[in-house]
Amino acid sequence: MATSAIKGRPWTQKEGEALCRAYRWVSENSVKGSSQTSEGVWTHPPQERFGPTPMFRNVFSNAENGKAKDDLAFQHEMVSSLRLMAEQNAFVVEEMNYRHEERAKQIQEEMDDRNMQRNTSDYTPMSKTYFDRKKRKIMTQWELFTSDYTPTMADEDDDYSL
C-alpha cells in the first residue's frame, strides 16, 4: 500500500478511493485536470468497464456488509464518545458553578465582617442608619445560624450529650 509522503502513514480507504477518482478524472482530462499536455504522462485506463461476474457477487456483497458493519460500529463509538464528552462537560460546569457559589459566599462573609467592624460614630445620620441596619441584619443572620446548632453525632470528647 502506498504511503503519503506528507502524512508518513498509509492512506485510509477513503483517501485511497478519493485519490483513485482524482487520478481517473485527471487521466481522462489530462489538459484540463493537471496542466499536462503531453500524451503518455498518464496511462489511460481501458474504456470498457467490467462488472462483477456472478461468481464473485457474494464476495462483493460480503465486503459491502462488512463495510456497513464497520460504519455502524464507528457510529456507535462516536455516539458513546460524544455522550462521555457531554457527561464530562456537565461535571465541569457543575464544579465551576459550585466554585462560583463558594466564592460568592466568601465575598459576602468578608463584606459582612467589614461592615461589622465599621465605626459609624462619625458618619452622617443617613449613612449611620444604613450601616446600623446592615449590622442588625448581619447579627440576626449570625444568631439564626448559631442558636439553632445541635450536634448530630456526639463524640466522646464533647461535653454535651444528646
- Main beta-sheet annotation: none
Give Rg in angstroms: 39 Å
In total, the number of strands is 0
Shape estimate: elongated
Counting H and I runs of at least 4 residues, what is the number of helices?
4
Assembly form of the protein: single chain
Helical proportion, percent range: 55-70%
Structural class: mainly alpha
Total discrete domains:
2
Contiguous uncertain segments of 5+ residues = 32-37
| Strand-residue proportion | under 5%
Order of helices and strands: HHHH
User: What value does the average pLDDT take?
Assistant: 74
Distance between the termini: 80 Å
Structure description:
By secondary structure, the protein is mainly α. It folds into 2 domains: 8-48, no CATH class; 57-147. It is 65% helix and 0% strand. The protein contains 4 helices and no strands. It has helices at 13-28, 30-34, 57-117, 125-147. The chain is elongated, with a radius of gyration of 39 Å. It starts with 12 loop residues before the first helix and ends in a 15-residue tail after the last helix. Mean pLDDT is 74; it is low at 32-37.
